[in-house]
Amino acid sequence: MASPDDLKFQEFEEATDLLLADPGASTLSMSGSSSTAPAGATGDIKLDMSDDEGQEESSELLRGEKQTSGFWTFEYYQSFFNVDTMQVLDRVKGSVMPLPGRNFIKHTLQSSPDLYGPFWICVTLVFSLAISGNLSTFLNSLGSTHYHYRPQFHRVTIAAVVIFLYAWLVPLGVWGFLTWRQREERQQSGYSFLETVCVYGYSLFIYIPTSVLWILPFEWLRWLLILVAMVISGSVLVLTFWPVVRDDTKVTAFATVATIVVLHALLSIGCKMYFFQTATHTPVPTLAPNHTAAIFTNKTH
């Protein structure tokens, strides 16, 4: 059994003194590699502080003491694109499979929003609407002798303006209103602006396959697809924002949720009405042969 004196802290001699006394001794650096000092030379002790620095940085992040970059710097926005494929796929899955009592931000995003998924979902939806709308117009007018196909590239610009304005301005309005209505006694805290943008961006994913299926020239099928897409994406928004407003007055809570649903419905219906118009063929009036001959005879007399 060790005596109390053996357990006390002991000061050891410098490594250089030890090497001078025994030149053939081996030294071990903190990185785990061993080297044998040559005879007659003093050894250098190397310390690898990379692990300690990494642990210190992690502890700073956990304690919230690490300084973050300003919002005007590239590093600030780079963190919102630092997601892998599995995370994006899991969030896309959560946006098309809403479950009762499952908050998209709390359970799927886990308070870690990204801009990678919403950005590419919006870009894909823009081209999907424009291309599918062109194909739908072409198929509806196929066989008409008075129709000449012209690519309508302006639809890409219109789709981009509509989708990106909706994906940024509507979340900005919702976030601003919820922040304004938030009170200190409320138990449920509000969401950040980026979390609001993220949930709106992922809720638009269902419209990508829907816009492709809108090419089919069946009006009843198009409206059915609109209804299904509105129910799925609208459920994601309602299940996400209802816990934030339910502690408010009933009128304010239901009015807020109703406004969110109505704006979402206007987007889908407006895109369908503009990009997938039902072609109406107006017959060109033609004169009958006998009537034309009668007119020509009257003119000769």
Automatic annotation (TrEMBL):
Record lineage: Eukaryota, Metazoa, Chordata, Craniata, Vertebrata
Lineage top rank: taxon: Eukaryota
Keyword annotations from UniProtKB, A to Z: Membrane, Transmembrane, Transmembrane helix
Membrane topology of the entry: Multi-pass membrane protein
Localization per Swiss-Prot or TrEMBL: Golgi apparatus membrane; Golgi apparatus, cis-Golgi network membrane
One family name in Pfam for this protein: Yip1
Gene source species: Salmo salar (Atlantic salmon)
Protein name: Protein YIPF
Family according to the record: Belongs to the YIP1 family.
Residue ranges occupied by any Yip1 domain in the UniProt entry: 96-267
Biased composition (Low complexity): 24-43
Ranges of biased composition (kind: Acidic residues): 50-59
Region (Disordered): 23-64
Transmembrane segments: 115-136, 156-178, 190-208, 220-242, 254-275
Main location as per UniProt: Golgi
